[in-house]
Design a protein that fits this description.
The protein is α+β, with helices and mostly antiparallel strands. 47% of the residues lie in helices and 23% in strands.
């Protein structure tokens, strides 16, 4: 009886989140929409409705293990296009958010976050664009966790159409609570994984190192600027 009860509870939770999304949309003040330009409104509505659709479909989607890939299917709509009549580069990052949310829900990572009262934070993202996605074409987003180090978790989102990779978005992020950053090794253990990360490709670790180098440079530049201010 327990699996059935758990499934019913998950269905109710999914419907509750869907209703909450709709209520947030309904509560947007007219002044907000009047001040926003058409592209901003388009991105907002695209993301919210795709998230809503994903949540409504969740009761029928199977759970996934933390190192498995999850797949969601989408279609290109007019608001996804730029002047070249293909999906604009920035939209890939927005769609990757939807794929990542699906992964977090299906893998059970959200339960670990709730227990630790932690929120997900994206540190850096990187994109590679190989081919075009045009109006009304269908495609899939394949999301998987590539590994982790002492601070960051790394995820990959592959945009696939007819077996060919159209583009890739890579993200490194973490979970942070009031007590500080949750160590990825502790987080993944609660997902049933080993503390040791799978071996990550060289291009991924090199990218992460370059992100760290940029962060150090930015902090140094900020420190120099603040020290040059009068009264310091």
């Amino acid at each position: 009886m327990l699996p059935c009860r758990t499934s019913c509870i998950n269905d109710q939770n999914a419907r509750f989140r869907a209703k909450k999304l709709l209520s947030h949309l309904a509560d947007l003040p007219p002044s907000t929409l009047q001040c926003a330009d058409h592209s901003t409104i388009g991105v907002l509505m695209n993301l919210w409705f795709r998230l809503l659709l994903m949540l409504l479909q969740r009761p029928w989607r199977k759970p996934a293990k933390a190192l498995q890939s999850t797949v969601i299917r989408m279609r290109v709509w007019p608001l996804d296009l730029d002047f070249n009549r293909h999906v604009t580069n920035g939209r890939y990052f927005t769609l990757a958010d939807v794929g990542r949310m699906d992964f977090v829900l299906r893998s059970g990572a959200y339960r670990v976050a709730f227990r630790r009262k932690a929120v997900p934070i994206v540190g850096d993202t990187w994109g590679k664009f190989r081919r075009e996605l045009k109006l009304f074409e269908s495609f899939e987003i394949h999301t998987k966790m590539l590994g982790w180090d002492d601070k960051w978790s790394f995820m990959e989102h592959q945009f696939v159409r007819k077996g060919r990779v159209i583009g890739v978005v890579v993200m490194r992020g973490l979970f942070r609570s009031a007590k500080g950053t949750v160590a990825p090794s502790e987080f993944v253990q609660e997902l049933g994984l080993s503390e040791q990360s799978p071996e990550m490709p060289k291009w991924l670790t090199s990218w992460s190192e370059s992100c760290d180098a940029m962060s150090h440079q930015l902090r140094a530049e900020e420190s120099m600027f603040l020290n040059d201010q009068p009264g310091r």
